[in-house]
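Hello again, I could really use a second opinion on something today. I've been staring at a protein lately and its backbone has me curious. Please have a think about how the structure follows from the sequence. I owe you a coffee for this, so here goes:
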Amino acid sequence: MNSRFSNENIEYLISLTLSITASLLIGALIMMANGRSPVVGYGALLRGAFGGRYNIANTFAKMVPLALTGLATAISFRSGIFNIGGEGQLYLGAFAAAYVGITFTALPKGLGIALAIVAGILAGGLYAYVPGLLKVKYKIDEVITTIMLNSVAVLFTSYLVNYPFAPARGKLNGTEIIAKQFHLSRLIRLSTLNTSIFFMGLMALLMYYLMEKTSAGYNFKLVGQNPLFARFGGIDDRRQMIMAMVISGALCGLAGVFEVLGVHYRFLQHISPGYAWDGMLVALIVRNNPIGVIIMSIFFGALKTGSIAMENATSIPSELVLVIQSIIILFIAGERGFKDRFNELKLRRKIKQEAGEGDA
């Protein structure tokens, strides 16, 4: 059993490596078709992502929200309930943290940060609880409800920052700056990398332990694979699904908290450029593996950071990384079909060979 599991992982790792390589080659062909050198382009991308402390710091800063939203996707998808509402949960978590930061200004630093984190986690978790409850109690499709609730959260927070929580001096599409004691410390000068990366690392370890080493993680996986079998085995599949949804929403809310406390120091109307959607892609690519989420988040963070340097150095549009990401998804999505087709052809060849030997 362990050997089979190991072989499956090795096969998928090879498939993923080939998919990434193929996507980069296609990206190189696109550059050449537009009269650009792939060597120069990818060289600039690598330097922009890892060429010095500042660039490395910004790559890992981009990785933090991707990893948290990726882990959020992994826990919900593995449990058979599909949280597509991470973006809305992130927005509400971010606003909750900003509210704490501009309201409870007398709190000392440690207590204030802890309160902001708890507020963001609760906001994201409770917002995810609603579609989870609707799913298990009334059989309402969570994909539809979570997508719709994204818009509700984004528009609601937009109203808040432009009206009741607008800054006193003009409308800047954001709240006032949070109190200084709520600011997470920057680790590298002039970069956005801050101490949230340590919180993220701790959360990644906890999620890995939960999903891979505990009976609760086994229950999540069993419910996701076969809820009817899990129910006959004495597992409350409804409770497991709701729990997974709440944890998923809490992680998305936490991603929003760190954007406020560590990057922008206020809530902005468009605080996320789609982190939850990218985090979902990260989780899908690595099949909801928590360790894979961290590694792929670094890769995606490098693409995002390096693409800006690539555009500045070579005039190659930074949107090329979106093409590369999409091609990786395309290859990964088609992997199962390619494998089934290959096995089918292999089986037909074997049957023909056996038929030929029988005739002889």
Remarks:
- Residues 10 and 16 are 10 Å apart (CA to CA).
- The chain has one domain: 59-315.
- The chain has a mean pLDDT of 91.
- The radius of gyration is 23 Å.
